[in-house]
Amino acid sequence: MEIREIVVPEINSAVDLPQVAIPQAPPVTLDIGVPVINLPHFNPMDMEPEVQPPKIVPPKTKPPEPPAVKPPPIKPPAKKPPELPPETPEPTVEMKSLPQQVVEAIPTIPEATAVAASSVIGVSAALATPFLLKLIKPTIKKLAKKLQKALGKKVKVESVYERRKFQRSLRG
Known about the structure:
This protein is an all-alpha fold. It has helices at 13-16, 98-105, 109-151, 160-171. It has a domain at 118-172. Helices cover 39% and strands 0% of the residues. It is extended.
């Protein structure tokens, strides 16, 4: 087995090194006066008029003549003093004990029964809806086909894919 010699290739400085940008003039290092820069600037419009416009004086008109006959005086309606409702004594509020307030807040048996019944009906309808749709949809579809056939309309022939899709939808 032989050990090779370590070789470092030479670098051609004229070809391989990147170009360094050397500025043509040295940077400014002294503060000598204010630099002169030609930047665009905004000159607002002068809103002062150079010539005063002439003042327009409206012609004086003579007021119209008053009518010769005076209208009859209008008598205001007689004001009746507003009727005040009879004074009612302010009701006194009974302070009830806390247990008495709780007992009065409990609903009666008919009220509780009505609320419970309506909630049971609502929940059962919500739970039964998917089942009812699966039960009713095929029946309605068959009736629609029979009705169309009876009226003489052409019944659309379903493909095998559509029939399978419908049967799979029934499985759930």
